[in-house]
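Entry 14: structure prediction run for DUF2249 domain-containing protein. Input pasted below.
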Amino acid sequence: MKMLDNRGLEPPQPMMRTLAALTKMKDDEVLTIINDRRPMFLYEQLEELGYKQRTEQQSDGSFKIEIFR
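Run finished. Output tokens:
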């Protein structure tokens, strides 16, 4: 599992970092990202690329998103 903390970054940095990390992953790996906001535009990109995701809001208001095939 790979972890990417995108908190504190201004858009579009979180999405760019996430998509770059996905290009380096194997199909059976899971990428977990932490974002300040729910990444609505990222969800569209993930769907187009054939990824699934699970989003969970954290107690501090951030969002943990697990991305997998």
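Notes: DSSP finds two helices and four strands in the chain. Will compare against the previous run tomorrow.
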